[in-house]
Amino acid sequence: MEEKKNLLTYAGLKKLEEELHDLKVVRRKEVAEKIKEAREQGDLSENAEYDAARDEQRDIEARIEEIEKILKNAEIVVEDEVDLDKISVGCKVKVYDCEFDEEIEFKIVGSSEANSLQGKISNESPVGKALIGAHKGETVDVEMPSGIMQYKVLEIQRNV
What we know:
Layout lengths: L5 E4 H31 L7 H25 L1 E4 L13 E7 L4 E8 L10 E3 L3 H6 L7 E6 L2 E12 L2
Parallel strand pairs: 1-2, 4-5
Antiparallel strand pairs: 3-4, 3-7, 6-7
């Protein structure tokens, strides 16, 4: 089975690369220092600092592995080349929420970049899935746990 591609915008790629660099260069060194200091305190069986530092080390290594896996299968979405006729990953879209009578803006991104607080929704989320491929002026139905939401596509822009 082919591993699925992780769609990333250029900004998303840069952010992950920076985080990876920080984890490998800065955080690894910090945690190794903490472990060394904790070891020097003697008895490791009841050493909370040592245990905490080991846990932190495990978390750092797990995140490094996760980022490397994302980057290995990354496919970069070039925002300048996004087709603005229809909604796709890498574009910004303004929709009208028919039920709540309000306009909302979303940025459609790959799942590893999604952040609902910043209005970045994944192409794999229910809203993202419904919007992908829609054209300006179309109304799409989004199946949500609370029922069907309707969004009318007002405009599609480059995400810059």
